[in-house]
Design goal:
Blueprint (H helix, E strand, L loop, with lengths): L4 E4 L14 H13 L4 E3 L4 E7 L5 E7 L6 H11 L7 E11 L3 E4 L8 H10 L4 E8 L8 H5 L5 H24 L1 H8 L6
Parallel strand pairs: 1-4, 1-5, 5-7
Antiparallel strand pairs: 2-3, 3-4, 6-7
């Protein structure tokens, strides 16, 4: 099933700009910019939405919930119900602490893994949506509180790496959208040598 709705997870407000937890928005913004799409605030969805009309016909929706991370599913669920989009046609783009910075991983199921935005998606959509996880790990120092880490900003070195990786992240997301999750998993998921 092809992806009709791409949701980037993040938190609204200037305080959260450039935090690790907003990496899903950063990637989605870069995709929208590359495709020449414009964001529009849609009150009924509590989200910023961009409409992407596809060359061969059909429409894809890019969505950034404005509900705060912990309630992302309510907003995305509202969009999905309105446009009658089933969970397998939804891809969520978000930060993942268990993946090293600079890498991505595509999966088609799994737990929230401590990510409140994903927990909200599972609550409102069930388990059948596609995940496009963008690494923000490892957590350093390791004893740091998880919330403090994900709501913190990248170091200058990390930001520099991210700036280099943003184009590949977008290209990977486009691969997922054009070729499907299986192909994306085969090509993007890091093969650990461990």
């Amino acid at each position: 099933m092809s992806i009709s709705l791409v949701a980037g997870l993040g938190n609204p407000g200037r305080d959260y700009d450039a935090t690790r937890h907003n990496l899903g928005w950063v990637v989605l913004d870069a995709l929208a910019k590359k495709q020449g799409l414009a964001w529009k605030r849609v009150g009924q969805f509590e989200a910023d939405v961009a409409r992407w009309d596809l060359p061969g016909g059909g429409t894809r929706w890019l969505v950034k919930p404005q509900t705060f991370m912990n309630d992302s599913g309510r907003s995305i669920g509202a969009v999905a119900r309105f446009y009658k989009i089933a969970p397998p046609a939804i891809a969520a783009v978000y930060d993942d602490l268990t993946i090293d910075l600079g890498f991505v991983k595509v999966t088609m199921s799994g737990s929230a893994g401590g990510h409140n935005g994903v927990a909200s998606l599972l609550e409102h959509l069930g388990d059948n949506f596609v995940r496009y996880k963008v690494g923000i790990g490892p957590k350093e120092p390791s004893q740091m509180d998880m919330a403090d880490f994900v709501l913190g900003k990248f170091t200058p070195e990390q930001q520099s790496l991210l700036n280099q990786k943003l184009d590949p992240f977008v290209t990977g997301l486009e691969l997922l959208l054009s070729r499907g999750a299986e192909t994306a998993m085969n090509q993007l998921n890091r093969r650990d040598s461990k």
